[in-house]
Amino acid sequence: MRKEYLIVVIVMYLFFAACSDKQNDAQVQRKDITEMVFASGMLEADNQYNLTAQTDGHLIQMNFEEGTLVTKGQVIAVIDNNQNIINAESAGQLHTIASNNTLSSAPALQEIKANIIAATAKVKLDEQQLERYKRLYASNSVSRTEYDNIQLSLTNSQSNLKALKEQYGNQQISANQQEIVQRYASKVSNVLENQNKITAINTGKVYVKKKQLGDYVRKGDVIAIIGNPSVIYAKLNVDETIMSKLKKGQTVMIKLNTNKTKVYKASITQILPAFDETSRSFIVKAYFDKKLDLNITGTQLEANIMIGTKKNALVIPLAYLNYGNKVMLKEDSKMITVKTGIVSNEWVEIISGLEVGQTIIKEEP
């Protein structure tokens, strides 16, 4: 009985040992292989932007919630900044005054105009007086000195009239210049006043509401994140070492953290040229081939980018490739170095060093 039991144990040991060896074996074979590289990322709405405050103050109106659809130019929040309002009112009043000063009825122009009328009358009177003294001088009724004094008086009157007319023109120019200055100052103040109103830059959907009613905000604070809800894309963070392999149009297989059992197909549409310091990676945009069955942003994702495909390639399982591109042959447990090609999630192409049908094993830990 003991002998029969011992035989059974030996047979079972040999059976499981053989199975174990078989499980550690892999044959070099030929098959189609697709090279893929991994990238992480998140979902983002097309044309997504941060709507920011352009002035300081308390939020006294909030006309939106997360999920609200807004249109371009729509006022979605209001900031209470009285200084901007007061400045706009003051600038508007100063522009009105400056504008009135350009009219012919303006007090300054009216005063000069009255002086011009008086000076014109004085010139006419002096001209008449000169004609009279001219006749008297011809008849020796007045002296040369008296005649010259009347002539000098006319010259002074004419000079005074000319100066007043120039003063009138200069006053018009000055009034017009001041009107232009105040007009643009009023426009600037109106712009600043309008910054109290937070308006949507583009039509879209509010995905994130960053502030609440009554919050004090400063210029530059993000109030909301808005994007185009009709187009959601994958924003991928790609390591710089594989950037040279990426091209527009390459297929991307994506799994979302919300449902890792489903795979979505997308294509690389844009490769941003600048290195992103925040994520310490390059940014690649991949747009889905079909519209997503969910309309959310911000969810994390895993992506595999298909770099290239090779038909009938000589391959081994990736798990059997050791550090330094070494593999272990089963026949003599000898470690050899191979030259590799493209790599997929499960397989690695062997360019040289192995042949079809050879058996390799995993290195013992």
UniProtKB/TrEMBL annotation:
CusB-like beta-barrel domain location: 235-286
Pfam families: Beta-barrel_RND_2 (PF25954), BSH_RND (PF25917)
Gene Ontology molecular function, alphabetical: efflux transmembrane transporter activity
GO cellular component: efflux pump complex
InterPro entries linked to this entry: Beta-barrel_RND_2, MdtA-like_BSH
All copies of domain Multidrug resistance protein MdtA-like barrel-sandwich hybrid, residue ranges: 49-225
PANTHER family xrefs: MULTIDRUG RESISTANCE PROTEIN MDTA (PTHR30469), SLR1207 PROTEIN (PTHR30469:SF33)
Protein name in the entry: Transporter
